């Protein structure tokens, strides 16, 4: 059994949904040492999230952004937590809905995602800054 763990820092991304699959594979070459296992990806933030979805058509990511902003608007009059601006409380709720971690099978040293799947960073703040991910790979 092999176990690897690494914390990586992503560059700052603008608000939206961003594919980070290739970046993780580049920054975590230890994946190549695992033939069968699991990769756990955890984001250490409360105003961003992670999800797996369509990796080919960028309009899917744009539609995610449009829908989630319509669902949880910044101008919701009943929010009282607004110390860091109008996008802060909506970002916390969005983060809870999408979640802060994903698990991906590892097969033959690579993430075993479906043909049309990719890992998204869901950035919910206008200026969220650099985000940290904890990557943990376990397997044989």
Automatic annotation (TrEMBL):
Pfam family, one: YjbQ
Domain of life: Bacteria
Family, per entry: Belongs to the UPF0047 family.
Protein name: Secondary thiamine-phosphate synthase enzyme
Species annotation: Cecembia rubra
Lineage: Bacteria, Pseudomonadati, Bacteroidota, Cytophagia, Cytophagales
